[in-house]
Design brief:
about 130 residues, mainly alpha, 7 helices
Length: about 130
């Protein structure tokens, strides 16, 4: 059976039940057939971004090289990765982890420039 996709308003109802104390995270996960991790992620996104954070993303977010370097400051600053993604509104912990790996390899953290460009030219018409 495929996983049910929840829209933003349904996610908000579920989060509301948890926040009001009506139901716990574990019970909500069981009731709605969602993992606890997913529920925690929804709550975090709602706290950081509001209702917008619960809506489906149709595009990649763009981050400047400067923001990426600032986000990596958790290494010296003692902040957790979750505190950093909340502070800088980064989409996921995985994204931050990738930046940290690049930083530790002494690679430059470049700004996102969009999707890949097609390498082929269109056919010429006669």
């Amino acid at each position: 059976m495929p996983n049910k996709k929840y829209d933003a308003s349904e996610k908000l109802v579920i989060i509301g039940e948890i926040e009001s104390g009506e139901i716990g995270v574990k019970a909500a996960a069981k009731k709605y057939g969602i993992s606890k991790t997913t529920l925690v992620k929804w709550r975090r996104r709602y706290k950081v971004y509001g209702y917008e954070g619960l809506e489906k993303q149709n595009h990649n977010r763009s981050y400047s090289a400067g923001l990426k370097l600032q986000a990596v400051d958790y290494i010296e600053g003692g902040l957790s990765q979750y505190q950093i993604i909340d502070k800088y509104k980064i989409a996921s912990r995985t994204q931050l982890s990738n930046w940290i790996k690049e930083y530790n390899r002494h690679s430059s953290l470049k700004a996102y420039s969009g999707g890949a460009k097609a390498m082929t030219k269109g056919r010429s018409t006669t």
